[in-house]
Sequence to fold (356 residues):
Amino acid sequence: MHVWRDKRTMLILFGMPIMQILIFGFALTNEVKNTRIGILDKSKDETTIAIIHQLQASRYFDVVENISDNSKLVPSFQAGDIKLVVVFPENFQEQLLQSNTAAVQLIGDATDPNTANTLINYATAVILDYQSSLRNRPPLPYTINTETRMLYNPQLKGSYNFVPGVMAMVLMLVCAMMTSISIVREKEMGTMEIILVSPIVPIRIVIAKMVPYFLLSAVNIASILLLSVYALDVPIRGNLTLLVVECLMFTVTVLALGLLISSISNSQEVAMLISLMGLFLPTIMLSGFMFPIENMPLGLRIFSNIVPAKWFYIIVRNIMIKGVGFEYVWKETLILLSMTVFFMAISIKNFKTRLE
Fold:
């Protein structure tokens, strides 16, 4: 009844997950699409025109500028109009036909080195794809052709990686933040004294605080999965029932963590601060969905093992994207279950039956 009466709580519970999954799902991506590029074509022959058309036809590039000479390159980059320039030398087709080789220069704006490197790789792939289409040209001796295959995500969509991480972040923040202030609010409003004088043992009070948020979180899980599938085109290749059960179990873990924060806090502000700062940053930094844990120092890799979102991210990614069964995620499930028992035990132990 308290949750239904508090309109701000309802907005946070249902509005925040939907907004975060949409914003992060569409905006938080490592893909580079519709990038504005320029062309400096000194040859203007049939081959260069075909390559330019192939670049334009890809979803990665948008040819917006035809540069006339080298002196216009730097001003175009300085103005921020383009991120990449493809330079074809003179007599490009003639060189290709006579010697079976020709050079293409790719000039990128390296103020953002990751984006520049990605764009150059994309452009190289498009050019190599055109090269492989020239079936009537005899291959050079000792030519090595490479074949690339991307499992589970052949289109390299960023949402495949970010949606499981955003699910962990949303459930962690919403569930922990709401439950962390639940017991503290009772103390500040003076209703905790009435609860304590009633014949209710602490474990029932703690569980009673979890049940409403657990039911509301189940609604959030349903909305997140629906948005992931129908708005972000992220498939659920594994067992849907297993995925839902794992999400609900992680919800219980986070609710228990929120109650632990609530039991050791003296005010709603403190509980909120601990929830946001103590859970948000580790979830973003140490869960593995934004930054690879393998690249971190040994101390951070060890510390990441106590972050529940790390194990949940592994579970959701394996079930949703890889389509594996329980036999591949039982270890992570057991870790989350152990965390749940630990958080619940500490919450009950720290629950004070007398107000100071």
The chain has two domains: 2-28+157-350, 35-132. Residues 2-28+157-350 form one domain.
